Amino acid sequence: xxxxxxxxxxxxxVAVSLVACGGGGDATTSAAPAPSTGTQTASGTITGFxxxxxxxxxxxxxxxxxxxxxxxxxxxxVSVADLKLGMQVEVRADDAGRASTVTVQSEVKGRIESLxxxxxxxxxxxxxxxxxxxAPTVYEGVANLAGLAVGDxxxxxxxxxxxxxxxxxxxxxxxxxxxxxxxxxxPVEKLDVAKKTFMLGTLAVSWTDATRLLPAGATLADGLxxxxxxxxxxxxxxxxxxxxxxxxxxxxxxxxxxVAGLVRGLDFSKKTFRIGEFEVDASAATFSKGTTNDLAxxxxxxxxxxxxxxxxxATEVRFVKEQGDATVELTxxxxxxxxxxxxxxxxxxxxxxxxxxxANGTQANLANGxxxxxxxxxxxxxxxPREVKFVTSEDGSARWLFGTVQGYQAQAGTFxxxxxxxxxxxATTFRNGDWTPATRADxxxxxxxxxxxxxxxxxxxxxxxVFRPGLQLVVDDVEGTAYExxxxxxxxxxxxxxxxxxxxxxxxxxxxxxxSGAKVEVSGTIVSGxxxxxxxxxxxxxxxxxxxxxxxxxxxxxxxxxxxxxxRVDASTAVVEPAGATLAAGRYVExxxxxxxxxxxATxxxxx
Length: 608
Description:
The protein is globular, with a radius of gyration of 26 Å. Strands 1, 2, 3, 4, 5, 6, 7, 22, 23, 24, 25, 26, 27 and 28 form a 14-stranded mixed β-sheet that branches. Strands 50-54-51-47-48-49-53-52 form an 8-stranded mixed β-sheet, with no helix packed on it. Strands 31-30-29-33-34-32 form a 6-stranded mixed β-sheet, with no helix packed on it. The chain starts with a helix and ends with a strand. By secondary structure, the chain is mainly β.
């Protein structure tokens, strides 16, 4: 394999779209996922992507609404591209692992007030760098703790230890000229209702009649965990809150959960403790990488179980204590390529070290647009891969290729397509584009074909061949992440292929939202090896202007008032497919649209 053919793997996605999205009689569609009735909650640290991975568990984020809880009283909607390694998140998903919401929850934001050995203070909260090789601190905007200075504006994600110190999983230094904004999450101390004050660490918080106290009807008490926000910097150690939200665990009965963090409040005899907002009962749990005797405040664990009356009844407690527990998994296209340094999903990668293993290719195959899967370790603000694997899809499943047969060896069944090595087998099936049967004898050099198969040890093993004579290829709904966007030149790249836009290109979503990192869906025509776009749909721009949700309709009042996966929906102006389908409680749907004031204004609904 050589770099140029790998970069042209966009045609894989092109051919997929022919099969899945309207290739006439050639369509081979898989059944829609069955509706799910169960729910699960995950709370912990992002440890990878290719969908979102939280503490080693992968959740399908393709239809997830992503929110950032800067102001806990008014979370803002963003795109999946805004999720970063080391962030603390809460995920709501169905029982098949399909996420409906991912909420980003930093522990503290503000300016650094003081620095001490291995730690610093922000908004009255002490933040400590993790020295645990099983859970290292991820940095952005700075290489390590030594690069921070008093006055730097930082966003910190982490977990509290038994002394209420924040052990950081992520430290991001932001623009020091940013508008002052402060967010602090922690337990209430020294509450004085008459004076409307309490303490969060050494930060004195006060509130006024204009402060939003949420959820409605909530009251403050010592020990309660709260999130406080203000757009005005503290004066000394005093902060006037604009929003105060009492943090309550989302713990519906019978819902499954996976939570991770540091043990605190341990009652060893009862085997009960707390992780963040969650109360855990591990009296009937099995333990891995340790025993019940290893339970102690400050130990890092991952817990699985089911909620019963607000308590997480643990079925498994796994101790996090080995470097292998910190393995980062990333799947995505290479961007910002500069030799041994590049990015995947916005994460800096460094392959300059010795010992990096490559699968389905070599280091020479790395280039912008190449789709890779990386397993590695965090080292400050970069990931050092142990393995780089060249893949044809994020899920590793079978895919379609399109191209012209070259170098065919009939006896061995080997040939090349787009410079890639491919092979027929005795089980390969053949047909023409009009569904009439064909045979292996019809296969030869210069044939224009569409192939279904998967890579095995770097060779594309073909399970199906469709003969596609003709000079022009019209494609529908090629999906992926746009990069190297140049609106002035009217060009960008998608899955390694060049896409051209012009005055006749129709945009769903603002043309200005087409930017590197935006998730898009493109239709058009292949001309001279480039995809000339007739339509570009901005599915999720960096601003998160469009969201997608799938699931069963609930709380149905009318077409302008119902919920899907907990998201309120107004479908009064939506295009419904198939035409004539009706909306009703219990129907399984997929929908897209912008979110305004917490309501998804659906533009398109597909009824399954």
